[in-house]
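Q: What residues go here?
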């Protein structure tokens, strides 16, 4: 585990980080289209997908598939990327490429599954300046803090945001 996994740090230039993430997203999405089941949805989610959202500078990509195609998609992603640290469930798995620039996380979800919320969260922040300000404030408060503390606060914020 390196320092990036222990301490939460905001990117010094979130506009540049967003541009870098967009560039990588275009490349990765084309690669994923070739290996995933037909009809898979590939979306840029996470802070770099939201205008003016502060970010640590990574790219989060959600892959949404029909439940019956989850295993096939999981095998395809596992052939290309390392498993993420998040717990795998019957309708969620995560993958990562820490050597990508920016670092890449892929979130595989089954449509309608318990964690099929990433697009909804992104869209809520994109459409609510007040929620985005609150989320950015949370990020500023945790800049330089332990990653676990940030993730815990972020999880509470996400749950509350999704209830709206």
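A:
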């Amino acid at each position: 585990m390196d320092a990036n996994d222990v301490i939460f740090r905001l990117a010094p230039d979130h506009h540049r980080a967003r541009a870098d993430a967009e560039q990588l997203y275009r490349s990765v999405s084309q690669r994923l289209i070739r290996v995933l089941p037909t009809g898979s949805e590939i979306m840029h989610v996470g802070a770099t997908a939201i205008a003016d959202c502060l970010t640590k500078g990574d790219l989060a990509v959600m892959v949404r598939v029909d439940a019956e195609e989850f295993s096939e998609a999981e095998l395809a992603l596992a052939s290309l990327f390392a498993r993420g640290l998040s717990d795998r469930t019957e309708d969620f798995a995560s993958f990562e490429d820490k050597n990508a620039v920016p670092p890449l996380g892929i979130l595989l979800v089954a449509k309608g599954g318990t964690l099929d919320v990433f697009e909804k969260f992104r869209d809520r922040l994109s459409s609510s300046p007040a929620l985005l300000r609150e989320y950015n404030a949370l990020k500023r408060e945790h800049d330089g803090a332990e990653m676990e503390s940030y993730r815990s606060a972020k999880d509470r914020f996400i749950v509350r945001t999704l209830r709206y």
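A: Context that may help when evaluating the design: The domain at 3-163 is CATH 3.30.460.10 (Beta Polymerase; domain 2). The chain has a mean pLDDT of 95.
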